[in-house]
Design a protein that fits this description.
This is HicB family protein. InterPro entries: HicB-like, TTHA1013/TTHA0281-like. With 131 residues, the chain is α+β, with helices and mostly antiparallel strands. Helix content is 37%, strand content 18%. Strands 3-2-1-4 form a four-stranded antiparallel beta sheet, covered by helices on one side.
Length: 131
């Protein structure tokens, strides 16, 4: 699956990046190739054999540019993450929400530097844990 990754320069020779859909997954690398390999490894470490749901990737560039993570000093890349190597998998769904609720979700997600999909996934996990 192609996940968006926001990449910054890290000093003169390296790169640092973050996934808006995977808020705790920050990666570094000395080259873009190393950054991509480290991104795959980070997702595997975070989610393999885990009960955590992997959020579906955000593909909307307008939604990505609206995030606070986009400070205008980095670039967006889409990284192919091989989820076949990870036991936890996300499934795309379609749902309907009241427009006013969706606006509140978007504001809350933006405050937390995450996408709508990541926020809704975490909200569902929170509700299920509190049953």
């Amino acid at each position: 699956m192609e996940y968006p990754l926001y990449v910054h320069r890290d000093g003169d020779t390296g790169f640092r990046a973050s996934f808006p859909d995977l808020p705790r997954a920050d990666v570094r690398g000395n080259s873009l190739g190393e950054l991509k390999r480290n991104a795959q490894e980070m997702v595997e470490l975070m989610y393999d054999r885990s009960e955590q749901l992997i959020p579906a990737p955000t593909c909307s560039t307008s939604e990505l540019h609206a995030l606070d993570v986009d400070d205008g000093e980095g670039i967006w890349m889409f990284i192919d993450i091989n989820l076949a190597r990870v036991t936890s998998k996300a499934v795309g769904i379609q749902l309907s929400l009241l427009e006013s609720l969706l606006q509140r979700v978007d504001v809350a997600a933006k405050e937390r530097h995450m996408t709508r999909s990541a926020f809704i996934t975490l909200a569902a996990v929170h509700e299920l844990e509190n049953r």
